[in-house]
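Reminder to self: tokens first, then the designed residues, so the page reads top to bottom the way the pipeline ran.
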């Protein structure tokens, strides 16, 4: 039984790409994918931190590389596709995780702030998927997009983020319909409050005490915030053969918060 479970979650021989992989959920997922046997390609705009995560993975005896990529730039996405085609010929797993948040209402939100959130969190999913799906058509694969609890309901002072993450969820469904015939599964992981630098930045944006903000974020049935590892494990499930007949759905990982 133990071997069967290991085989189902193994990513041995797979090529996996993780965006926003220099920190938080992306870094934790890249590390977990590598431990499960995948050859991991980490994308981010933060070169120093991205190189550091890739180096840490290699020091542990696993396979990882870092490539600078702005997911809002189509030329960068095309370059990544060409690199993968040259080095691996195909792609098995795509984790579209890059995202940013601005905690403002519509009337307080400047247009450049709206554009930044939508471009990174939603347009980036579209652009990278557009250019990498052709590499997945050869033998199928799994795409996991990072949504949010706010993909499923609204939140205060987060208009652009709520719009982007709701868009990610419905884009996930549309992609699952379009590419299922190529044996490409597309799903959306929807984290609740997770202890990352991104979450802590929200306290500063709102002018709230960080300690109290994080305490409030822990007010859920399981009594704590999520960790990047919590979310990474859910992403592994959606990327592995454990979820072989799961596509077009969302997996809410929030410690019971939505309940």
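Designed residues (259 positions):
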């Amino acid at each position: 039984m133990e071997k069967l479970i290991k085989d189902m979650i193994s990513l041995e021989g797979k090529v996996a790409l993780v965006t926003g992989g220099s920190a938080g959920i992306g870094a934790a997922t890249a590390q977990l994918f590598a431990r499960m046997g995948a050859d991991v390609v980490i994308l981010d705009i933060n070169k120093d931190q991205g190189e550091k995560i890739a180096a840490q993975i290699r020091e542990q005896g696993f396979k990882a590389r870092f490539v600078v990529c702005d997911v809002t730039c189509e030329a960068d996405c095309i370059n990544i596709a060409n690199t993968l085609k040259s080095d691996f010929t195909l792609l098995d797993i795509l984790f579209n995780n890059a995202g940013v948040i601005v905690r403002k209402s519509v009337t307080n939100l400047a247009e450049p702030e709206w554009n930044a959130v939508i471009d990174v969190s939603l347009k980036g999913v579209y652009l990278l998927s557009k250019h990498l799906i052709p590499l997945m058509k050869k033998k199928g694969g799994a795409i996991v997009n990072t949504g949010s609890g706010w993909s499923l309901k609204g939140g205060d002072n987060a208009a652009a983020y709520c719009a982007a993450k709701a868009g990610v969820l419905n884009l996930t469904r549309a992609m699952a319909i379009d590419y299922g015939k190529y044996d490409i599964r597309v799903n959306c992981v929807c984290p609740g409050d997770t202890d990352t630098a991104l979450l802590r930045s929200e306290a500063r944006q709102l002018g709230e005490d960080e300690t109290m903000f994080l305490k409030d974020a822990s007010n859920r049935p399981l009594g704590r915030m999520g960790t990047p590892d919590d979310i990474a494990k859910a992403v592994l499930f959606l990327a592995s053969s454990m979820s072989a007949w799961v596509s077009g759905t969302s997996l809410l990982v929030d410690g019971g918060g939505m309940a």
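The first helix runs from residue 2 to 9.
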